[in-house]
Design brief:
The chain has 69 residues and is mainly β. It has a domain of 40 residues. 0% of the residues lie in helices and 30% in strands. It is built from no helices and three strands. The protein has a three-stranded antiparallel β-sheet with strand order 2-1-3, with no helix packed on it. It starts with 7 loop residues before the first strand and ends in a 17-residue tail after the last strand. The model has no long low-confidence stretch (mean pLDDT 86). The structure holds zinc ion. The site of zinc ion has 8 residues, from loops.
């Protein structure tokens, strides 16, 4: 069975500088420009993480003009 590859996009994040700590947070969710690690209270540095794109499913209202496929 073929599983389609999830599309990923680079997302700016902050990650903990502690190599034993794997905490990270999206930059857009960070409280400030220099957030502290929620796990170990250490410093966090900027980085990039490739995350699968969120696919929003259309729910509720179906298209009425869907004859063409
Ligand atoms: Zn940490």
């Amino acid at each position: 069975m073929d599983t389609p590859k999830p599309e990923t996009s680079p997302v700016p994040i902050f990650r903990c500088v502690n190599p034993e700590c794997k905490a990270w947070v999206r930059e857009e969710l960070a409280a400030s420009a220099s957030p502290e690690c929620p796990m170990c209270r250490g410093k966090m540095i900027r980085g990039i993480k490739h995350l699968p794109k969120l696919i929003k499913k259309h729910r509720g209202s179906r298209k009425k003009n869907d004859e063409k496929v």
